[in-house]
């Protein structure tokens, strides 16, 4: 009888442990960046259940115009820009408690380029894309997660045909390649992608003479890589097209161009793949605000248009939960983050109407 009782207790404890583990896996910490020219104060944190789509507010921290932010790989630090159009433009390092959602400012360094709008890190350095400054800033990281001052500034060029949007240099996105050996930056006003080489013993990337030219009047904006690292996809703001590439050891070879913005609104925004790599999503603004949905050919990485999901106004940024179940669209001018449930088979989106109300939301990031 005692043996039976011990077995029952043991089974009960195992079940509880399994349920706790599963529950913990469902819970994500969520960070939301905003523009602070309205009622927003800065960065807001939430608990997001990626199984139910339920959101719980946690905390916030005041920071001017944190329009883009990214967590460190271990989730202990967050690096957030302050998108200011003057010399106060900056990058801040913050300590992050994933359980409570609390953020603590560690230090702030000037980007030396106006309107930083994108940030990426590989754990050794942080990059910012400075839109109006037309440059990429490189910040070495100290062991405690704090930032060193800008070490190097790389500048873009302006020779695109749009005499209004491409009259001065703009860098819109800076990302590390999946193999960790290169950096790619979108040179918006020159219709090209810049490449930089990373060296194991040198914190500063080396600019490469090799660039990837995009169709004129495209305005390349955001670039993302497939989960297997074999393909890359670019959304261009002005042309509204998605360009697909084969990728191998720093080489981007174009294989396709397909339209995401059929209304020629010249306001395409963000681009992401589902975690399984089967579907690609690209947001569009200014007309017919929404998200274009493409199926990815598993054999060659090419795209086929599946559907178009209308959203709130100005979906500047969106993100997909690690389990692939939800897509969250930050609709800046509707002052909400819309929660869409993804169909794993068709890739289609269904609005759950579990909107997260935030003033001027423009960036959503998750920490497991």
Question: Can you put this structure into words, describing what you see?
Answer:
The protein is mostly beta strands and 368 residues long. The chain contains 1 helix and 30 strands. The strands form 7 sheets. Strands 12, 13, 14, 15 and 16 form a 5-stranded antiparallel β-sheet that branches. Strands 25, 26, 27, 28 and 29 form a 5-stranded antiparallel β-sheet that branches. A hairpin with a 6-residue loop joins strand 27 (336-342) and strand 28. The longest helix has 25 residues, at 2-26.
Class inferred from helices and paired strands: mainly beta
Number of strands: 30
Shape: globular
Q: What value does the average pLDDT take?
A: 94
Largest sheet: 5 strands, antiparallel
Tell me the number of helical segments per DSSP (H or I, 4 or more residues long).
1
Main features:
368 residues; mainly beta; five-stranded antiparallel beta sheet; 50% strand; disordered N terminus
Précis, in short:
This protein is mostly beta strands and 368 residues long.
């Amino acid at each position: 009888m005692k043996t039976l009782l011990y077995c029952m207790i043991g089974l009960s404890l195992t079940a509880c442990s399994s349920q706790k583990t599963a529950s913990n896996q469902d819970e994500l910490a969520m960070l939301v960046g905003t523009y602070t020219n309205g009622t927003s104060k800065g960065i807001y944190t939430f608990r997001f259940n990626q199984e139910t789509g339920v959101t719980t507010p946690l905390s916030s921290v005041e920071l001017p115009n944190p329009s883009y932010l990214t967590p460190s790989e271990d989730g202990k630090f967050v690096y957030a820009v302050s998108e200011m159009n003057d010399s106060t433009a900056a990058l801040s390092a913050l300590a992050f408690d994933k359980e409570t959602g609390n953020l603590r400012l560690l230090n702030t360094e000037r980007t030396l380029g106006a309107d930083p709008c994108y940030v990426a890190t590989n754990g050794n350095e942080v990059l910012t894309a400075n839109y109006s400054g037309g440059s990429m800033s490189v910040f070495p990281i100290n062991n405690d997660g704090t930032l060193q001052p800008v070490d190097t500034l790389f500048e873009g060029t302006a020779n695109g045909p749009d005499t209004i949007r491409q009259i001065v240099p703009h860098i819109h996105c800076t990302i590390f390649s999946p193999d960790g050996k290169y950096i790619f930056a979108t040179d918006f006003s020159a219709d090209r992608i810049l490449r930089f080489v990373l060296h194991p013993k040198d914190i500063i990337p080396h600019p490469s003479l090799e660039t990837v030219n995009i169709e004129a009047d495209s305005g390349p904006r955001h670039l993302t890589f497939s989960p297997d690292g074999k393909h890359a996809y670019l959304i261009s703001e002005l042309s509204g097209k998605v360009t697909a590439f084969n990728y191998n050891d720093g080489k981007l070879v174009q294989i396709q161009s397909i339209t995401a913005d059929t209304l020629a609104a010249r306001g395409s925004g963000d681009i992401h793949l589902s975690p399984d790599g089967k579907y690609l999503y690209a947001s569009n603004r200014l007309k017919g605000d929404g998200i274009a949905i493409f199926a990815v050919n598993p054999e060659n990485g090419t795209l086929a248009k599946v559907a178009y999901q209308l959203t709130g106004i100005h979906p500047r940024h969106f993100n997909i939960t690690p389990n692939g179940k939800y897509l969250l669209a930050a609709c800046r001018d509707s002052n909400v983050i819309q929660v869409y449930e993804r169909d794993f088979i068709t890739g289609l989106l269904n609005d759950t109407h579990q909107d997260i109300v935030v003033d001027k939301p423009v960036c959503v990031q998750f920490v497991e």
